[in-house]
Amino acid sequence: MISKLFVIEWVGPFSEIEELKKWEKENNIMRNYYFYIVSGKPSNMRNYRSYCGITQNKDGYVYKRYQCDPNHKIHTMRDKEIWIGRFSDNSVHSRSDIELCETMIVSYWQPELNNKKKSTYPSSNIVLINRWFKTDLTPRQNNIYIAQRMSDLIILDDSGIWGTEKVRKLVDFDL
């Protein structure tokens, strides 16, 4: 039996922290973006690597997470893709819900730069849906970025992890 369902809306990509800062000041009014994904080429590497994390700083902005930590992996990356995510229901979520979703993403997706939570699976049965949006908050229809390689639907139950790579639009509504 599924005990929790979460939908995370990812916005991006941003190529620099200053671009993210400007966007957040204009659009993150509720300050409810808890998740971030950074992909890029670390110094002295040719291939892209990714990192998934969470933040709940007192100011409520994701960009402050990078400013507060001068040793964060993002500072040594080139060709960055920065995504930030929030729960689609816009309600306040507990730290345990936020960490549960991070654990689900890291344990399933296995981002190369994450060292923790890669072999830890959540103890409850959950469904996680990832939705992708442009910075103007319109849905993304093409999956061309590194972070979008993560499955759009991930289900963890007593028998294993299930999922589908990409959810696609079936019908266009003229409203």
Distinctive features:
single chain; 175 residues; alpha+beta
Mean pLDDT: 86
Main sheet?
7 strands, mixed
**Quaternary class:** single chain
Class inferred from helices and paired strands:
alpha+beta
Strand content: 25-35%
Task: Using the CA coordinates, give the radius of gyration.
Answer: 16 Å
Query: Which residues sit in consecutive blocks of at least 5 with pLDDT less than 50?
Result: none
Spatially, the strands of the biggest sheet line up as: 3-2-4-1-5-6-7
Q: What pattern of helices and strands is seen along the backbone?
A: EHEEHEHEEE
Helix coverage percent of residues? 10-25%
Explain this structure.
A seven-stranded mixed beta sheet has the order 3-2-4-1-5-6-7. It has one domain. It is built from three helices and seven strands; from the N terminus they run E-H-E-E-H-E-H-E-E-E. The protein has 175 residues and is α+β, with helices and mostly antiparallel strands. It starts with a strand and ends in an 11-residue tail after the last strand.
Summarize it:
The chain has 3 helices and 7 strands. The chain is of the alpha+beta class and 175 residues long.
Helix-strand layout with pairing:
Layout: E1 4-14, H1 17-27, E2 35-42, E3 49-54, H2 63-68, E4 77-87, H3 95-109, E5 126-133, E6 153-157, E7 160-164
Parallel strand pairs: 1-5
Antiparallel strand pairs: 1-4, 2-3, 2-4, 5-6, 6-7
